[in-house]
Amino acid sequence: MSEGTGRGSTSAARARLLDTATRIFYAEGIHSVGVDRIIAEAQVTRATLYRHFTGKEELVLAYLDQADRGIRAGIEAARAGEGSAADAVRAVARFITGGIQSPGFRGCAFLNAAAEYADAAHPIHQAVLAHRQWFLETVTELLAQVGDEPAEGAGRHLVMLRDGAMAAGCLSDPKPIAETFLLGVEGILRTRGA
Fold it and tell me: Where DNA binds (residue ranges) (predicted)?
């Protein structure tokens, strides 16, 4: 397997490793996939894997970091240009339903990882909690701009609706799941006076 010797080819090898791990971890789960398979499918050497990642755990953390950055960017893009906070909440909800209805959807990468790493002290579980805290704070901040009542309960409600939609969206037809999620978000907004 030739990986080149220049800096660009090293970055390309790291990207192949992460892209391969992301695809397989999301589709099949984290514990069920060994590093040998990732190495083979990414077409790199074991030395290349360990040059970029100290081991599987660091590769999983990179996978979750990439997912986190993608979700943050998607939510920021959804919010951008919306005329009101309520419309921004709706745009975030549509972003979520777009994911649920995408080909190959297999639930929330973070909820899936938490199920495999239940120890709250484990770094992977901590990465999941950090992402979820960010999401809760983001939607709570948006909902605080809709209505005068404290928004913490509404934020938790939206996160719970999202979690349910993520779980149900990979178990049955995602279209009615997405529609139900959007109706739930509208209910939250109505309660807040939007």
Answer: 34-53
Q: What are the residue ranges spanned by the domains of the chain?
A: 1-53, 61-191
pLDDT of residue 82: 85
Q: What is the pLDDT of residues 16-36, one digit of tens each?
A: 999 999 999 999 999 999 999
CA angle 55, 60, 66 (to 5 degrees): 130
Q: How many Å apart are CA 159 and CA 171, to the nearest integer?
A: 19
Rounded Cα gap, residues 19 and 103, in angstroms: 17
CA distance 94 to 168: 16
Question: Alpha-carbon distance 109 to 22, whole Å?
Answer: 10
CATH number given to 61-191: 1.10.357.10
- The C-alpha atoms of residue 71 and residue 138 are separated, in whole angstroms, by 12
What SS3 string covers 14-74? Answer: HHHHHHHHHHHHHHHCCCCCCHHHHHHHHCCCHHHHHHHCCCHHHHHHHHHHHHHHHHHHH
pTM of the model: 0.90
State which fold the 1-53 domain adopts: Arc Repressor Mutant, subunit A (1.10.10)
Both structure tokens of 122 = 């484990």
